[in-house]
């Protein structure tokens, strides 16, 4: 090869290398930067959390532990409802790195429509992400306790105390599945429900939020609600995180007042109040909300024993613990166990609270908590623990991948006729017939004239109760959810030739304390009653929530009592329908009328369901989930009492009438069982009447002698069945023997539950059988 050829070859080689290098450089420059591991959805959640946590500053971590009410983002007035305010969004998201927003009762966009809810949450999410250094989405929470009850247009289901009367966990699950779908459609990922409190004291203003007085029934309902809300895949577009509340012992304050101190033995706390929370944890509940009050002298927000030893170690809960509204600062202002707000924060965070529902002053919480960490009064390890749980929840919800919702689809998902049909079915199964002399009910549809009267006969707000659009229920008539009242339901049910008369029976609200106005309204109702074949009078309570619903009397108002008495004096048949969040002390009134129905707070379709039952298109099947006392002096009273306590109610737990009758026979129980086994019991139930009907098969157990006091009887199994006239069904129930367990030992009540050997008795209907448990 000559020198010229060699030079040419070297030149070509050099150019090739240069071009190759240039191509590599261009390719390298064009390759997008790799995403950090926490943004990789293919990685396990645990790895994503760990990667994100190590990138966060202390300020960013504390922001994740902070929850602020959406009204704070609308302006300086903490209860403003209006457009979002960018200045306040900056203070919340940029200055304080807040990771969670909630809508407290009534905190809705204007106008209150499904589309505006979706638009509002999308706007907040977009702003938060755009101003988050690490692109961490917010999690939004709401109290959707009987449907998506904050959103105008959403179906309002019966409150829990009514649903408990259905004894139908499948129904509760279905309602919560629908609720989850609607809540998620508006860009909300976290529902502060279900309520797992045990309802033993009807003076308490939140009684109607419970599933009644029995721990097994409440546990089954709570477990079903959690399963409905969360489903099998939390990141699905129709699922939300549940927040089971209010852990624990909240519902039996000494004086019956909301947030007042409770004084409960550990044995009672663990045997009666803890089981629904245990079931919720077993069913995968993602979050727990803490009791606002105190138990045995310690605010639960400050109790390491309850939040760590019991909830974490004993029950195995791994999710997020969130405070209730302002409850951390209340350790300072109400409970007086902390001399400053800062000290209250230290106590609660160290006790085990992961997130504070502040809910208005973000800086007050974040600044104090940051100082506490720098002062080593709260460890960084504790902060990382709390934030890891919060981030885990956000990843499990799929918020990093899908932070927004389709605003156009919100309305079609929420305004759904199928929901109304479900609400009607739920109300029908909840309504309880407690008295029906001479089979007055069902009424004939072709009666000549019917009088419908009473303050709840044509009042949708009353039948939906509190936590409906607003915290204390519907306060603005222009924001009344679409609903069917009792009057409307009756008009749509009777024959075209039947006259339906209507009189309110009570004066307008602004004249309710005027004796003259009361008498005038009653006189009008009595005059109309003289023309009627039958009188249907709907009475009860007006909406309330929380402490505003506390009562020392639980009595029907004097005006309503007077109205029923006057109508009864006409000699016409009177059917009383009670629309209320609890049993009311009206023993003489109930005894004076031939028919009495308890509707509780039946929701959107309450009027339709009541009309179905009153006129025989549906057979009442509700059974009381709580004892109905004769007088307020018996409160608290409950069926699963210990030996030595009397039980003389007006209507007992589990009671409810039907338009048909049922016979129980051939009750079979094994002669013996093991403490860790199951007990299979069988019974044949026959519909001996002429109408199809549902029966609640209830199995109770008791043991005459045990080492500690145990209930005189306790519910150990139940099943709802449907029977045609003359039909029989063999009902088979497998009962875990563990349901017979007690906490042994002395007065402390800290031992583990055990099933003690001995002879036990089971009862179903009027049949009983005995069996023994051996070691």
Automatic annotation (TrEMBL):
Organism whose genome encodes this protein: Planifilum fimeticola
SUPFAM superfamilies: (Trans)glycosidases, Beta-D-glucan exohydrolase, C-terminal domain
Enzyme Commission number(s): 3.2.1.21
Enzyme class label: hydrolase
Gene3D superfamilies noted in UniProt: Glycoside hydrolase family 3 C-terminal domain, Glycoside hydrolase, family 3, N-terminal domain, Immunoglobulins
Protein name: beta-glucosidase
One GO term of the biological process aspect: glucan catabolic process
InterPro entries from the UniProt entry: Cellulose_Degrad_GH3, Fn3-like, GH, Glyco_hydro_3_C, Glyco_hydro_3_C_sf, Glyco_hydro_3_N, Glyco_hydro_3_N_sf, Ig-like_fold
GO MF term (any one): beta-glucosidase activity
Annotated signal sequence range: 1-20
Pfam entry (one): Fn3-like
Reactions catalysed, as given in the entry: Hydrolysis of terminal, non-reducing beta-D-glucosyl residues with release of beta-D-glucose
Keywords of this entry: Glycosidase, Hydrolase, Signal
């Amino acid at each position: 090869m000559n020198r010229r050829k060699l030079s040419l070859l070297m030149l070509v080689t050099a150019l090739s290398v240069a071009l190759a290098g240039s191509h590599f450089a261009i390719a390298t420059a064009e390759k997008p930067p790799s995403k950090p591991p926490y943004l990789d959805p293919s990685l396990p959640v645990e790895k994503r959390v760990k990667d994100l946590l190590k990138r966060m500053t202390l300020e960013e971590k504390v922001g994740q532990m902070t929850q602020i009410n959406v009204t704070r983002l609308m302006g300086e007035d903490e209860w403003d409802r209006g457009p979002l305010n960018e200045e306040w969004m900056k203070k919340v998201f940029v200055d304080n790195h807040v990771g969670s927003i909630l809508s407290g009762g009534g905190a809705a966009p204007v106008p209150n429509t499904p589309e505006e809810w979706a638009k509002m949450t999308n706007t907040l999410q977009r702003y938060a992400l755009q101003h988050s250094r690490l692109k961490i989405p917010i999690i939004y929470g709401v109290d959707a306790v009987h449907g998506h009850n904050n959103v105008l247009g959403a179906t309002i289901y019966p409150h829990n105390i009514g649903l408990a009367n259905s004894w139908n966990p499948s129904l509760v699950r279905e309602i919560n599945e629908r609720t989850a779908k609607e809540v998620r459609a508006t860009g909300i990922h976290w529902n502060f429900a279900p309520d797992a409190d045990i309802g033993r004291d009807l003076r308490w203003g939140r009684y109607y939020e419970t599933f009644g007085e029995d721990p097994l029934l409440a546990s089954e309902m709570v477990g079903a609600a959690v399963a409905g809300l969360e489903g099998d895949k939390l990141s699905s577009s129709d699922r939300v995180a549940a927040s089971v509340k209010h852990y624990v012992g909240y519902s039996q304050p000494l004086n019956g007042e909301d947030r007042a101190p409770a004084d409960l033995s550990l044995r009672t706390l663990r045997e009666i109040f803890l089981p629904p929370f245990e079931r919720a944890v077993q069913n995968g509940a993602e979050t727990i909300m803490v009791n606002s009050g105190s138990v045995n002298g310690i605010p639960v927000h400050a109790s390491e024993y309850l939040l760590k030893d019991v909830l974490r170690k004993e029950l195995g809960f791994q999710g997020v613990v969130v405070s209730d509204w302002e409850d951390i600062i209340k350790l300072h202002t109400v409970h007086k166990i902390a001399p400053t707000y800062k000290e209250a924060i230290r106590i609660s965070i160290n006790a085990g609270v992961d997130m504070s529902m502040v809910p208005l002053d973000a800086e007050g919480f974040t600044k104090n908590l940051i100082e506490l960490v720098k002062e080593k009064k709260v460890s960084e390890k504790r902060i990382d623990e709390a934030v890891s749980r919060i981030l885990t929840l956000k990843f499990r919800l799929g918020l990093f991948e899908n932070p927004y919702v389709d605003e156009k689809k919100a309305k079609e998902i929420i305004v759904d006729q199928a929901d109304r049909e479900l609400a009607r079915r739920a109300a029908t199964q909840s309504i309880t017939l407690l008295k029906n002399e001479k089979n007055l009910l069902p009424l004939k549809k072709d009666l000549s004239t019917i009088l419908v009267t009473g303050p709840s006969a044509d009042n949708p707000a009353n039948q939906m109760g509190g936590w409906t659009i607003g915290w204390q229920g519907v306060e603005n008539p222009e924001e009344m959810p679409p609903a069917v009242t009792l009057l409307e339901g009756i008009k749509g049910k009777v024959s075209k030739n039947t006259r339906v008369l209507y009189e309110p029976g009570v004066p307008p609200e602004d004249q309710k304390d005027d004796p003259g106005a009361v008498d005038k309204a009653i006189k009008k109702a009595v005059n109309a009653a003289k023309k009627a074949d039958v009188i249907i009078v709907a009475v009860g309570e007006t909406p309330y929530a929380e402490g505003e619903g506390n009562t020392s009397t639980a009595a029907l108002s004097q005006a309503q009592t007077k109205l029923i008495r006057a109508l009864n004096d006409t000699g016409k048949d009177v059917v009383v329908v009670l629309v209320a969040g609890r049993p009311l002390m009206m023993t003489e009134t109930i005894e004076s009328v031939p028919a009495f129905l308890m509707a509780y707070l039946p929701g959107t379709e309450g009027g339709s369901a009541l009309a179905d039952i009153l006129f025989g298109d549906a057979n009442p099947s509700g059974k009381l989930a709580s004892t109905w006392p004769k007088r307020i002096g018996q409160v608290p009273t409950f069926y699963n009492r210990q030996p030595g306590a009397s039980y003389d109610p007006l209507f007992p737990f589990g009671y409810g009438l039907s338009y048909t009758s049922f016979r129980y026979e051939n009750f079979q129980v094994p002669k013996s069982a093991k403490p860790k086994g199951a007990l299979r019991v069988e019974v044949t139930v026959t519909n001996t009447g002429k109408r199809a009907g549902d029966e609640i098969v209830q199995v109770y157990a008791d043991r005459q002698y045990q080492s500690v006091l145990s209930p005189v009887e306790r519910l150990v199994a139940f099943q709802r069945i449907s029977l045609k006239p003359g039909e029989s069904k063999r009902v088979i129930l497998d009962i875990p023997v563990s349901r017979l367990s007690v906490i042994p030992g002395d007065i402390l009540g800290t031992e583990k539950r055990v099933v003690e050997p001995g002879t036990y008795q089971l009862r179903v209907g009027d049949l009983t059988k005995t069996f023994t448990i051996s070691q």
